[in-house]
Every structure is written in structure tokens, then in C-alpha cells.
Design a protein that fits this description.
It is built from no helices and eleven strands. By secondary structure, the protein is mostly beta strands. Strands 2, 4, 5, 6, 9, 10 and 11 form a seven-stranded mixed sheet that branches. The radius of gyration is 14 Å and the shape is globular. The chain starts with a strand and ends with a strand.
Length: about 120
Amino acid sequence: QVQLQESGGGSVQSGGSLRLSCAASGYTHSSRCMAWFRHSPGKEREGVAAIDSDGTTSYVDFVKGRFTISQDNANNTLYLQMNNLRPEDTAMYYCAAEIPSVWCTLAAGDFGYWGQGTQVTVSS
């Protein structure tokens, strides 16, 4: 059973940085898609960034140039480095995985495994 555990959330001021981590366990397939989603009250859940087994990344437009997704394959850990944070980035951030995966997108329905989330709050 794949398990995902996020950490690294917190409260920062506008312009600050945070790095989220997602420790993954319980899988052996090398083919996978890992991603970060976020959800804030009153808004739809939205994909933020995704990365596949080969390291190919994709980002939603509103985080390009500010957020970086990466992975440490040796330690089965996914990261999201978030710089120049804005109040509108305030949300619960979730790690998601599809293992094994055929493709890697930011469509929530493609992911079968989800973490519990970590809260990010950005004040102005």
C-alpha cells in the first residue's frame, strides 16, 4: 500500500519561501507520477506541479518561475520549493502519486494515492 506523508508547511509573510516534503513508501514500481495539489476554502482543488520517473516536470502557469518540484529517488521523497510566496498561495497542499503510471498530468482524477496535506499560510 502506497503511503504519502507531507511536511514543511507553515506560516510566512508575502515574498517568503517554504519547502514542502513528501515521504513516499510502500511501492516498488519504477514508473510513477508524483504531484502537488492545493485546496483552499471556496475554491476548487488545483494541480500545482508534477514530475515523472524520468524527472520531466510540469507546472500550472501561476507558479511558474516561483515553485520548483523535485524528487530524491534514493530516499523516495518529493519536494516543492516555493519562493516569492503570495497570499493567494494560502492553501492546504497535498502530495499525490500514481504508481505505476502511463502518463503524468495535473489531472487530480489520474492520481490514486494522496497524503493528508500540510497547511501553507501566507500573510500580506
